[in-house]
Structure formats: structure tokens, C-alpha cells
Amino acid sequence: MNHDEATRLMAVEKYLLNEMPPELRDEFEEHFFDCPECSADLRATEAFLAAAKDEMKEVRVAKPSPAPSRKSPFEFLWRPAFALPAFALLLIVIAYQNLVIYPHFANEIAQLRTPQLLPSLSLAGGNSRGGETPSITVRPSQPFALSFDIPTQGRFSSYTCLLYSPSGSIAFQIQVSAQQAKDTISISIPAGHRETGTYTLKVQGDADGSAAGPASDLAHYRFAVKEQD
Ligand SMILES: [Zn+2]
What we know:
Elements: H1 3-8, H2 11-16, H3 22-34, H4 36-55, H5 86-113, E1 120-122, E2 135-138, E3 144-148, E4 156-164, E5 170-177, E6 185-189, E7 197-207, E8 216-227
Parallel strand pairs: 1-3, 2-8
Antiparallel strand pairs: 3-6, 4-5, 4-7, 7-8
Helix pairs in contact: 3-4
The chain binds zinc ion.
């Protein structure tokens, strides 16, 4: 079986729903071991079916389906509590894809097409040695931009910016080329799982591969993130 055939036969769904004749099962098994697309599809669909199984714990079926002719890791589908007709399960999979997955993507694409104000915090103009710690107030769901300058030195081929969260763990690490470092750097800080409090941004110069040495700290910036209710 090749990939086109597998797609045309809806092999993944039929395999998981035990609707495949044994010869085809063998052929498909041979195929998906070597096909990253089909095996990814199998894993995703299997995970969905496992979730659907939980949803269906309440469903009561009067008459259990006959036992499958062959043991399968997806046997749970055939236990009385889950023995919905396979076709209904398939419909649920399709409905899930249409109602949940696609509108979700459509929504994200629409958001990407709509211009949005990005709050930004500028650290340009020096380290905060003395003076107030600059701060930004954003909604928890809102990304923001952080801009700063890198004090460049000719001996560095690139720079690493490390952002430490208030709890001291590294929130992210980003590498900037010497060319990019000539201008003010602007980094977008994503929303979600973002701690509030005082962050530290550390800029290091990366020693050239030929003269490998310890990274040199070039700048420390501190800033505070507050969240709007
Ligand atoms: Zn395939």
C-alpha cells in the first residue's frame, strides 16, 4: 500500500475503528511504520478517540457488539460501554475536525490578519543602575514588545539574550547576530504562563568558535511586568 491508497481508503480511521479486512490491515501496518504522515495521523486520531472514550462513559448500549476477530490495542472501542456503532464514531471524528479544529484555525488566521496594538517597553537608554525599574502593565492574554540596545563589541560574532523570570528560571533565550545587534532589538514576549514581577534581561557576547571562551556579560536590564485585571 502506498500513501495515496492509504489516504483514499481512509485507512487511518478504518484501522482504528477495526473496519479493515485482515489483509489490508497487514498492508497498512507495513505502510505506516515507514510513513511519518500516516503514523502521526494514527497517533492524533487515537488520542482523539481516547478522549472521546472518556466522553462516552455515560453512554449505555443495550447489546454489546460481537467481539473483534483480532486483538487490537484499540479494543476499548468494542467493550460494551464504548460499543457505539463505528460509523457514529467516525462521524464524531469528522464533526470534531470540522467544528473544533477548522474554526479554531480560521479564528487564529483572522486574528493574524487584524492589526493589533502591541504594548511595548523600551529599555534603551541604559541599564537600570539606580533609578526606577521600568515597568509595563498588560492583560494576561496580551503579548508585548521589549526593546533594548546591545552594547556591541567587534570581537563577538553573535549575542545571546537571556530573560530570567521573577522566580529566577530562564523564561527564554534568544540569539542575535552581530548584524541584527547594530539596531535596537525588539523582542515579542508571548502571553500565557507569564509571571508577574521583576524580570532580568542579560545580554552576553558569544565568543567566536575559533577562540572559544566563556561568554561575557555585556548588559543587565531589569524591568517589571504587571498584569491588568
Ligand atoms: Zn502514508
